[in-house]
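[stage:ingest] chain + small molecule (S-adenosylmethionine)
[stage:ingest] validated
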Amino acid sequence: MAKPERAAGRRFDRDHGVTTHAIAFLTDLDPDSSGDAAAHATHYEAVPVAAFRRLMAEVPDAVIRASAFVDAGAGMGRAVMLASEYAFERIVGIEISPALVQIARENLVKARDLATRCRDVRLVRADARRYRYPNGNLVLFLYNPFDGEALDDVLDRLSERPGAAGEWILYYTPVHPARLQTRGYELVATLPETHIYRKNPETPDFSQIEETRPEV
Ligand SMILES: C[S@@+](CC[C@H](N)C(=O)[O-])C[C@H]1O[C@@H](n2cnc3c(N)ncnc32)[C@H](O)[C@@H]1O
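[stage:predict] done
[stage:export] tokens:
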């Protein structure tokens, strides 16, 4: 991560009274409680603030308002806190490490001066490979949390959701993009270090959301 991004991360922590700026390895943090997830996981590092805001600018407001946001591998909760500044229906952060999820929960409680627009925000200690993802439209955030095998497991879980709800995947540092493309996700935008994918855009909520005015 570049020096200005690190400085912005520290500023985020200072401004909001939280702790997210760190680098940690699951094998050091929770070797016993993470099970085999550690073998597939990358390290913890928080998403750069500007990068998150840049990628969110690609998601139409109508999609945000009609979707749940899920961060698979939420770490200390920076992306979850940033997401709470958008009008999602609800937000869930999933984190395998008990130590990190504890810090993320404390962060959520003490965070100050966030421009909060979503108040239904939860942090769940769970394995993203086995989690039952919410039904309905979904915006999934991935900051390269795990290897391709674990990513496949997550995509399997998504495909088990009933119906054909719309899905957006915001993949920051996309190390395994082919896994999404072979499963029918359409690449809709490429930003520095980010791919944005979409599936089932024909879902009415996603393609036809417009201001509906009563007919006169
Ligand atoms: C690069 S960090 C991203 C943190 C956060 N999303 C952010 O952007 O600030 C990846 C996180 O994924 C978590 N992780 C790895 N494998 C996981 C799994 N199977 N289930 C849930 N979390 C996992 C790691 O513990 C780590 O905290």
